[in-house]
Amino acid sequence: MDLYITPAVELARMLRSRELSARELLAAFLDRIERINPEINAIVTLAPEQALAAAAKADEAAAGGEGLGPLHGLPMAIKDLAETAGLRTTFGSPVFAANVPERDAAYVANLRRAGAIIVGKTNTPEFGAGSQTFNPIFGATRNPYDRTLTPGGSSGGAAAAVTAGLLPFADGSDLAASVRNPAAFCNLVGLRTTPGLVPDDPFNPLSVIGPIARTPADAALLLAGLSGQDAGLPLSRPDRPADFLGLRPAGLRGLRIAWTPDLGDLAVESEVTAVLDRARTALEGLGCEVVPAAPELSDADEVFQVLRAQLMAALGPLLESSRDQMKQTLVWNIEKGLALTGADVAAALTRRAEIFQRMRAFLRPEENGFDVLALPTVQVTPFSADVEWVQEINGVPQATYIDWIRSCSRITVTAHPAISVPAGFTSAGLPVGLQLVGPYGSDVRLLEIAQAFTDATGHAAIRPSLP
After folding, report:
1. Which among 13, 35, 119, 322 has most CB atoms closer than 10 A?
2. Taking a C-beta distance cutoff of 8 angstroms, is the pair 228, 463 a contact?
């Protein structure tokens, strides 16, 4: 059995039944990392000794009949934006190249309690800024489907590692598109969770943590380990982690889907549109009612730019001490944040509340709304790993390094959960993702719908050509 392509839910079953030990599984993945990671540069800090010690303790716990967490013995590498106790965390920045935190981020602590074995860190752009994964410390991560192309970002290291079989699944963080974009570029499932489902920022719902996996069932298993209420994080939700275990596909017949190829005004590459047209046909064949419709979200662009810049302003002190070590797009975004007025932020917060209510009303099937909104995850196909950001789509200029991902960032502003699922491949064999947006708090339901779609289409089973 090739353990590196075995579904995470099956690996979890084998570990719990002791058909497989945590040390055996870790050895298989460490061997895979040694052979494949140099080609794609997905895992940038590796801690095999720490991982082996944790795996040995996991096996002792299993042998002793102790209660086992849902992620017992499953290896993981954490995105290099999250603090990991005793394990280097650089945030993709030369300023923090030697940083070794003393504590875990809240969700990393959840993962350890759930039994995950932390083997290292996955690559990310500098401070997670941009949907292309490269930084001055570790260089660029490559897409396993074509090593000349980017896997997207900012969770590009996580997505590339899962696609290449270096990890069974991985965590990502999503502010603009950073779970959904790399999932789409790497033919994976990536869920932008409802704010608070996974404990993270204590007061900001713009950025969330979510799972990246090969299947919705694997993503749900990881979410059982990521989630959990935290008294120190007031936005954390009281969802029970057990709610995500044993995911079953939803029945799709009669599902009412609002379908938009462009949210009304976005430029989208023709190859993306062609693949998604086939996905629409597949949904109709599965009994869904697919209706051309979209909520009005064009005003979300300015809201997103302002609220993102507000977050970036927190990095302002680094401009004085380390400007020459920071990429120009990041400097631009920090300066944009520092230039904001109180009135700018207040207006954006007011408008965000209006946009949330607009989307909430749109996704209310009991009031003639829709069960799901379907749209492109990414407006373009994977591009060169040597290009920092997409500057035009179909001849339409993209003014900033985050304009080309508005099919995701507009959804971010609504605060609704969204999942990217494998939708098919272009004529050149590049993956395309379909984004499904559900009602607030409907994370489990979205995963169930995604499981039904992936089961029916089979796109998620198509792996890249690697040794």
Report:
1. 119
2. no
**185 closest CA partner among 174, 177, 193:** 177
Whole-angstrom Cα distance, residue 194 to residue 338? 28
CA distance linking residue 198 with residue 196, whole number of Å: 5
Q: Which residue has the higher pLDDT, 203 or 131?
A: 131
**369 pLDDT exceeds 90?**
no
Q: What's the rounded mean pLDDT across residues 17-26? A: 98
- Indicate the residue type of 403: D
Query: Running DSSP on this structure, what letter comes out for residue 207?
Result: S
Say yes or no to pLDDT of 182 above 70: yes
Rounded percentage of the chain residues whose pLDDT exceeds 70 = 99
Q: How far apart are CA 434 and CA 33, in angstroms?
A: 29
Count of beta carbons in the 10 Å neighbourhood of residue 425 = 17
Q: What is the pLDDT of residue 62?
A: 96
User: For residue 78, how far is the Cα from the chain centroid?
Assistant: 12
In whole angstroms, give the CA distance from residue 3 to residue 257.
37
| Tokens 């591009």 found at | 383
Residues that are catalytic: 79, 154, 178
Report the distance separating Cα 107 and Cα 371, nearest Å: 29
Q: What gap in Å lies between CA 331 and CA 168, rounded to an integer?
A: 35
Cβ neighbours around 60 below 10 Å, total: 11
- Contact of 384 with 148, CB cutoff 8 Å: yes
How many angstroms separate the CA atoms of 329 and 92, rounded?
14
Residue 396 pLDDT exceeds 90: yes
Query: 190 near 419, Cβ under 8 Å?
Result: yes
Whether pLDDT at 74 is above 80: yes
Q: Examine the pLDDT at 350 and tell me if it is beyond 70.
A: yes
| CA dist., res. 430 & res. 462, Å (int) | 11
Whole-angstrom Cα distance, residue 291 to residue 177? 25
Cα(286)–Cα(207) distance, integer angstroms: 33
Q: Which residues contact 320 (CB under 8 A, 6 or more apart)?
A: none
* Integer Cα distance of 207 and 57 in angstroms: 34
d(CA 39, CA 201): 34
- Strand locations in 264-315, DSSP E? 289-292
Q: What is the pLDDT of residues 164-177, one digit of tens each?
A: 999 999 999 999 99
Tokens of 303: 């809201």
- Evaluate the CA torsion angle 206, 415, 221, 235 in order and state its sign: positive
Cis peptide before 321 (omega within 30 of 0): no
Distance CA(95)–CA(46), nearest Å, equals: 20
Mean pLDDT of the chain: 96
pLDDT single digits (tens) 418-460? 999 999 999 999 999 999 999 999 999 999 999 999 999 999 9
